[in-house]
Amino acid sequence: MMNKTKQIYYNAIFGAIGGLLAWQFVGLFATGGWPLTMANLFIGAGVGLCIGFTTGAATGFVNKLALRRVLIGAVKGALVGLVSGAAGMMIGGLLFVLSGGGFHGRLLGWMLLGLLLGLGTGLVARSPLRASYGAVGGVVAGAIGGLLYELMTQVFAQQAAADAAGMDNVQMIMSAAGLMLLGACLGALIPMAVTLLAQGRLRVLSGPRTGLEVDVLDAVTMGSYDGCELHLPGDKAIARKHARVYRQNRRFFVTDLDSANGTRINGTALKPGDAVQVEKGAKIEMGTAVVELM
C-alpha cells in the first residue's frame, strides 16, 4: 500500500505527465507572435492548469483509490494551477523585461508558480499548515524545475543554432523534457515538503488500506467516507466519519465522532465526544483497522 515514498514517487509521475500535457497544449498555439504579456499569461495558465490537473488527480488516486475523488482533485488542482500559473508567469514576465531579458525573470516566474500552487493546494484543503508547507515546497520545486527547463531549452537551442533545420526539433524536444521535469519537481517536492515539515503521521497497520500513510498537520478525519483524509473503505464497522486526530499546541488528540462501534486507544474504549491526548506510538483501533500515530 501507499507509504510516503511511493506517494511522492507517483506524484512525481503524475506531475511529469502534466508537464507533457502542458507542452502539447501550449504547443498548439503560435505564441511567438503574440504580445509578450499575453503570451506569458497564456503559457503560465496553460502549464499551471495541466500540472495542477494531474497532480490534483494524483491525490485521489494515491490516497483514496476513488474515481470521484480523482475527478474532484483534478478539477480543484486545475483551477488552482490555472490561477497560479497565470499570476506567476505574468509577474515573471514583467521581471524578465525589467531585467533586460535575462532568464532570471522567467525563473522567478516558475518559482512563483510553484509557490502559489503549493499555497493554493493547502488553502483548498482548508489547512493553513499545509498551505504554508506546500508553499515552501513549491518555491523549491519551481526553482529546481524552472532552472532545469530554462537551461535545457537555452543550451540545446544554442547548440542547434548552426543547424537551422534541426534547431526547431531540438528545442521542441528539450521543451517537452524540461516541462516534464518541472512537473515532476512540482508533483514530488510539494508533498515532500509537507511530509518533512509535518510533526506527525498516521500509518494503517491492519484492515483496509494497510500500509497507507497520511500526514497529521492540523487534523485528520478517519472513516469510510472518501472525503476523509484517511479513507478506510470496505469495513462495515467503520463509520463514514469515525474518528478524528488533531494537533494542538504540539500535542496530539483523538476523538470519536459518535461512531456506532466506537474507537479504542491501545485497547481502551474511547467515550464518544471525549478528546484524549495520545503520544506517538499509540494504536487507534476502528473495526478491523489499526492505525498508529508515528
Question: How would you concisely characterize the structure shown here?
Answer:
The protein is of the alpha+beta class and 294 residues long. It is built from six helices and eleven strands. The strands form two sheets. A six-stranded antiparallel sheet has the order 2-1-11-10-7-8, with no helix packed on it. A five-stranded mixed sheet has the order 4-3-5-6-9, with no helix packed on it.
Walk me through the topology.
Layout: H1 4-27, H2 36-64, H3 67-98, H4 104-124, H5 128-159, H6 164-197, E1 200-206, E2 213-216, E3 219-223, E4 230-231, E5 243-248, E6 251-256, E7 263-265, E8 268-270, E9 275-278, E10 283-286, E11 289-293
Parallel strand pairs: 3-4
Antiparallel strand pairs: 1-2, 1-11, 3-5, 5-6, 6-9, 7-8, 7-10, 10-11
Helix pairs in contact: 1-2, 1-6, 2-3, 2-4, 3-4, 4-5, 5-6
Please tell me about this protein's structure.
This protein starts with a helix and ends with a strand. It is an alpha+beta fold and 294 residues long. Helices cover 59% and strands 17% of the residues. It has helices at residues 4-27, 36-64, 67-98, 104-124, 128-159, 164-197; strands at 200-206, 213-216, 219-223, 230-231, 243-248, 251-256, 263-265, 268-270, 275-278, 283-286, 289-293. It has a six-stranded antiparallel sheet, with no helix packed on it. A five-stranded mixed sheet has the order 4-3-5-6-9, with no helix packed on it. The protein contains six helices and eleven strands.
| % residues in beta strands | 15-25%
Structure class: alpha+beta
Instruction: Report the count of strand segments.
Output: 11
The end-to-end span amounts to: 17 Å
Largest sheet: 6 strands, antiparallel
- Rg result: 22 Å
Instruction: Sum up the overall morphology in one term.
Output: elongated
Widest beta sheet: strand line-up = 2-1-11-10-7-8
Order of helices and strands: HHHHHHEEEEEEEEEEE
Q: Mean of residue pLDDT?
A: 89
**Approximate helicity band:** 55-70%
Helical segment count:
6
Which spans of ≥5 residues are poorly predicted at pLDDT below 50? Answer: none
